[in-house]
Amino acid sequence: xxxxxxxxxxxxxxxxxxxxxxxxxxxxxxxxxxxxxxxxxxxxxxxxxxxxxxxxxxxxxxxxxxxxxxxxxxxxxxxxxxxxxxxxxxxxxxxxxxxxxxxxxxxxxxxxxxxxxxxxxxxxxxxxxxxxxxxxxxxxxxxxxxxxxxxxxxxxxxxxxxxxxxxxxxxxxxxxxxxxxxxxxxxxxxxxxxxxxxxxxxxxxxxxxxxxxxxxxxxxxxxxxxxxxxxxxxxxxxxxxxxxxxxxxxxxxxxxxxxxxxxxxxxxxxxxxxxxxxxxxxxxxxxxxxxxxxxxxxxxxxxxxxxxxxxxxxxxxxxxxxxxxxxxxxxxxxxxxxxxxxxxxxxxxxxxxxxxxxxxxxxxxxxxxxxxxxxxxxxxxxxxxxxxxxxxxxxxxxxxxxxxxxxxxxxxxxxxxxxxxxxxxxxxxxxxxxxxxxxxxxxxxxxxxxxxxxxxxxxxxxxxxxxxxxxxxxxxxxxxxxxxxxxxxxxxxxxxxxxxxxxxxxxxxxxxxxxxxxxxxxxxxxxxxxxxxxxxxxxxxxxxxxxxxxxxxxxxxxxxxxxxxxxxxxxxxxxxxxxxxxxxxxxxxxxxxxxxxxxxxxxxxxxxxxxxxxxxxxxxxxxxxxxxxxxxxxxxxxxxxxxxxxxxxxxxxxxxxxxxxxxxxxxxxxxxxxxxxxxxxxxxxxxxxxxxxxxxxxxxxxxxxxxxxxxxxxxxxxxxxxxxxxxxxxxxxxxxxxxxxxxxxxxxxxxxxxxxxxxxxxxxxxxxx
Length: 769
Prior knowledge:
Elements: E1 6-10, E2 16-19, H1 21-27, H2 31-34, H3 39-47, E3 63-70, E4 73-80, H4 88-98, E5 103-107, E6 113-115, H5 136-139, H6 145-158, E7 162-173, E8 176-190, E9 196-205, H7 207-225, H8 232-243, E10 250-256, H9 257-260, E11 275-282, E12 293-295, H10 301-308, E13 312-315, H11 327-336, E14 338-348, E15 351-361, H12 369-405, E16 417-424, E17 432-438, E18 444-451, H13 455-474, H14 479-498, E19 513-521, E20 526-532, E21 538-540, E22 546-548, E23 553-554, E24 568-571, E25 577-581, H15 583-590, H16 597-601, H17 608-620, E26 628-635, E27 643-648, H18 654-668, H19 673-693, E28 698-704, E29 707-714, H20 734-741, E30 744-750, E31 753-761
Parallel strand pairs: 20-23
Antiparallel strand pairs: 1-2, 1-4, 3-4, 5-6, 5-9, 7-8, 8-9, 10-11, 10-15, 11-12, 13-14, 14-15, 16-26, 17-18, 18-19, 19-20, 20-24, 21-22, 21-25, 25-26, 27-28, 28-29, 29-31, 30-31
Helix pairs in contact: 3-4, 7-8, 7-12, 8-12, 12-13, 13-14, 18-19, 19-20
């Protein structure tokens, strides 16, 4: 035997994997006796007093121990050395492997337990003497013995070791069975001649380490996934998705009802009359459906948790007397096999938001005190997310209420337009709106607007602008004039916000708003349009052709610009469909190259509700941020027999001609005597005023729709106004009389002069005879 010969090869866990012939000669053990044993066992036997050494053992044989790298593992070679060595090398080997935390087990060719080295022990709870001769996968109580046997057999057949494989086992523990997690490695044993002797399996208990990793992963999942939603219900759904089944097989989230509606959460302890809403559930069996609302159960773990905000670990044995007061819950627990419960509060700053119930059932391990701390951490993050969602919902509810309650209501649907509206609100609360406003002469104003804000600020701004629009529309302004005055109003609002104190949320908040106005005349079959920043409207004609209407773009409202809002008048035959939209819908629907433009072009004779439904389905899946609003209007002409038009001379004969024409037409329409008399008087005064203060040509027009409208047009541009004549004056009472008799009156200017009108309500709203 020469110096440097390898005698023994020992793996990193202290087992002998090679035993050369020189080692047999030197130490007295055969390869069959030594391979697979722990080196510490051999050292003990060799150094034991009383003749423990084998025959032929060379007590003073010098050896050298050095580490070598084999693949990813560090192994130890025992080599022959010239110089004698003391017991230091032996002591080092014994110290290294005697206290190894890994359990070593030798398996034979059939994967039966052949030997448990004396320096190690079997798996906890398994008597060592009961292991010998048993198949290892069943002997150690592995959760999936067939799968583990297949892995071990693969190592035995192929020789490729498997290292650090996580394996779960069920072992005896205080109070019953317990589950442990082991890091298991398999290495094939071979003789010096290459014969396969079996396997060495090492098992390291990593239960606590894996549980700690699992808890950290759970908390990371909760932090990552919970809080994405913008309402309380969505946050609660995210919570149960994050913890089931990672932490519990069943999870229930109950939220105080007032919190769901954005109200301030109550201080602890909560009153006995508090009402809980089932906000989320995940598991096999539920006592109550999601959305169920019921009072807080008294004298239960749930009421106790909301009294002091301390989580509780509860056993669900048959001695749980509190379940008797809630048969539905008791039945659900029994059917699901739940055996362990943690009830933890959702609370923030001493205010109770709700509570979470975590259940483990069937084969799941019962909760421990460590799980109680995990549940508290999970609920602490969830409570913060619920409170954020509650605040958002409160602001959203306030904004929606402001937008509904503080704004003008929609006028009734006109007889000459079929209206349909598509509205997809932004989840963050946008500022889009639309209005349909009845105007004198059976005309209708269609308004679409959009404020580039969110939340309460957008709702307030929309309210102000809509109020201004209704006020300006009552003045019977043309679309370009209406937008100009609306822009002035928006500019004053923006300047007022800029002067607010720095702490005010509206301070220095820019106001960016767009608006489009269209006025449809069912008598002339025309539409006059103007726009401030919004997309061009589109008209689909009765023959199926569609076109973008040539409406020049005006500046956005409140812009510091002197640019006008040019108006365009187009012909709209009866049966045409007019489409107006906000910018978010304009790109996809109104633009000639928009992907949904073919849907709009197919309007034809389709019902508008059906068309809106198709557009909604196409927009819901992929729509840009912000409110999406499309206003569709299908035109109808006012029947010719409901309009009387009479040209008048510009002299004193005009009034008698107008009165006679009006009287005959009112008889045809079968109006009552009082309305007929009042109408004749109004016609006489309007015509007389036009003769005195107007210019030719003069025209009388009577229109019968929801109201009876009297219009007198002339070529002058002067604005009429009411005079308060004295008792001795012989004239000057014309418009005063009109204002006294009519429901409302006014004047509008156009390029050919002006029209003064007055409206009268109909005594009989039915169709004229």
